[in-house]
Model the fold of this input.
Amino acid sequence: MKVRNYFIFVIVALIVYPLEVFAQDSLSQKKNQLVIKQNIQKSLEKDEKQSKQQILTITPQEINLGTITTDKSSEGVFTLKSISADVIDWSTDGSSGWKKLENRKLSGALKNNSGSIQVGIRLLPKESEDKQKSTSSYVEMKLESGSEKLICRKEFQVGTHKAAIEINSSDGQKTVFATFTIGYTQKNPSINLNPLRLDMGSILQGKTVSKKIMVSNSGKEMLTWSVVARKHAKEDFPDDFHQGRYISFVNEETRGSGVYNVPLNLKEKIELMGKWMESNGYPAGAEGENFVKVNFSGTGIILYLGIYQEDEVNISMSIDKNSVENVELLKDLKEKKGELLVAEGLANGQHVFTLVSKDSRLVFEGVKILGGSTAYFPEGSIKIVPNSGATTRQTNYLNVSFNAGQAVPGYYVDDIVFTTNSGEALVEVFAEVLSENILKVVDIYRYYNGTDYLFTADPQSETKRLIQNRYVKEGIAFRLFKPDTPGTACFYRWYNPQKQSHFYHYNSVGGGKDLRGYIYEGAIGNIATSRLTNTRELYRWYNLKTGHYFYSTDIQGGKISKKIYRFDGIAGYVK
Done:
């Protein structure tokens, strides 16, 4: 019996013990897996934390190197700083579009420390007599870091230029800028004019418009000059005068911002797609494919390029979806100073010009539309102030004004003639005169809800908004203008739901107003930015306590309390 019990005990032990061992092993494995998982998670968090610390900062973002001449160079320093415990490698090919003297990069490595890139700009002397007569010169940029250096060159005209330097690293690509101005490039005086084609735009009969011309000297010796509008004899007036009308792409509001937007007056004529940079107010190509489409009515079109570099040209063009062969056209582009005859002899009517710029740094000044009658400006209608001067290294700014009081509706073109001690130079001037009868207005209705005032040209389309917010109709407050009316700009509307307040301005970014908390609601019409015939002021008041705005054509402010509201200026001019 004892032997039997002994065998039973042994059998039970053999069964239970392996199970306990297995359970312990399983628990131990789970603990080990948990520890391993925790270690992996900590490692990942450590790696993530370290990766987040791999930050490379570059200061400043832009260096202004000032004016360079044949006897004056300039230098600056970009500081690179890493706060990472890991090594951050960086490199740069210099500025895109510049020719490197050697096929190499400038590179370095940082590990929780600082480094620097010295940038030097100098103007190279001209080698031959023919080059001495040229208004352009080669600029050399030298980038140095430690014992390494990168030298590249590019040809520029006299004026201000900005070079973009792209720096690549494990922290991503960063871009810094070096701005410089080329003063004089030769000993003998030589006049430089900007722009060479002055677009006065569309102007109503009886109105005056003004534009500016910059005059500088690319020579070392003093330049003396005088300027007059060209005078014409009776025999200079042909019955059928087809000089063409110029359309400038310049947008003064975006000048210096680095990003180009089509100006309001060209919205229906020009369409841009892709990434367009800004150069002195003009659209400039960037990386990738960028498109520009121009809708025009005429028999041909000429394209004007502000900057031309042979190695940068990578464009394709079409007229009405028919490809334009540009190989022959581009051959003499440099000699023609960026003037490119794209098409002529087309059927007189509506056409579409499309251009594709691929990885090109070209600057697009504008187009000239061929076909259609033009006339010379009426004698005495153009005034230039000042009309003479002496220039060494400074830039003179001339105010050119056109009074359309004696001009009939139509297109006008003429020359402004500069006479200097180094020869003669011309600036073409263009304008379109419109009849006052074309002014078309739209009724603007005012609704209110407490201290909030909503203006709209189309109450029916905003019925839901008006009902939900319980707005009360007050009737027609004033009249705005239709789009493209000369002398007007879009009148934009914003709404702040927290303050329950509307704000209006003709500047697309609010004219300096802090728009945080405001929602953009579009344009309600066009408002005159200066007084037009039979227009009146639209005044603006501001409630200091609530942050609300009030608009009225009544200088007294109507029913608002002057103790609460403060006068905030003229919002524009309305009918």
In short: The radius of gyration is 34 Å. The longest helix spans residues 2-53. Confidence is low (pLDDT under 50) at residues 46-53.
